[in-house]
Design brief:
InterPro entries: DUF2851. The protein is of the alpha/beta class and about 425 residues long. It is about 50% helix and about 10% strand. The radius of gyration is 29 Å and the shape is elongated. The protein starts with a helix and ends with a helix.
Amino acid sequence: MQEEFLHYVWKHKALKTTQLKAVNGEAILIKNFGQHNLNSGPDFFNALIQIDNQLWAGNVEIHIKSSDWYAHNHEKDRAYDSVILHVVWEHDIEIFRRDNSTLPTLELSNYVDVKLYGNYKKLIRSKLWINCQNDFSSIDDFTVMNWLERLYIERLESKLKDINNLLKDSKNNWEAVLFKLLFKNFGLKTNGESFLSIANSIDYSVFQKSRNDVFQMEAILFGLSGLLENDGQEPYMINLKNQYLFLQRKFNLSDSGVLKPKFFRLRPHNFPTIRISQFANLYALQTNLFSRIIEVQAKKEFYELFRIGVTDFWKSHYTFSKVSKISQKPLTKSFIDLLIINTIIPIKFSYARFIGKKADDEILDLLKELKFEKNAITQKFLDLKSLETHALTSQALLELKQNYCDKNQCLRCAIGNGLIVKN
């Protein structure tokens, strides 16, 4: 038995609520089960329970055995003085209040359907890829898709803290937050943290003063990245170095704490040199980028917004030293999709929360326009059950696997719940 299961039973009222009796025979009538407390203190706050014709308002504490009260030292903690009912699976000892009266105790094992507990044990003890692997396909499509939508919003909510920290650091400047988050995601997984360290080393007002001159923006980003430290003799690189040294003195720029970007195992189009040039070009071509991103809603409009390539030098180079075949090197649709998923949608979601607007439906509709991400995890789910194949599904499936399946959180999962209460 796990205490989490008992919390589930109480929270979802999955017990026979008629003719309840405390272990001492007193009648119990639950008028309000209370609110689940996920922090320290009693497990459920503000319950309303009638015990032997006396109405009590207070908290509920849940344990596997009554003796766990003492094992957890609750008798020494005044936070538990407000407990009005002790809910246990097995009653093995009396619990006394400070005034020496007996704390009323409800033994749940007498009121929970044996099938419910059997389904729970079967699910939680599974050793498969996911606990519900053999039964995943039996859950109806409506339940699955509703849960996946909720999971994706949950995934976005988990990113709010990071964005709020960026917002605090930038003194509520949303353009600065976009600049940092967007530049980070131009670096993808390999150089994301490096690019973010570069963005964090620049006061956004400095970058703003240079945004009408793409060469200045490239000089700042390449200079801070450390990519100008080589002894290249290309006139373009020499000019970048001179420009950076001038701007470094003018704006007191420092590369302290900057992580140098990597080239190893990257395809040429993802080289940090190319991504930096594309990023500088984007900011040179687009004014009021944050406002445009908040206004735009459809995928095709974002493709138009991000229809940019590199500056002239990089059309014939991937590195400073070697000439290559001339190419415009535009942002691909697949790369823009990643920017929408990892930057645009989190920014739109966070800004909507910031101004008190609900934009969930708009965000979910945009995500449904994007392609399903195929990887080992998402494909495994598709092998178990036919699902809608768009980015909302793939993003939510990753959230499901990482934060529910892998952590054995079946009781918090709508799919797990559906299987537990089945039959």
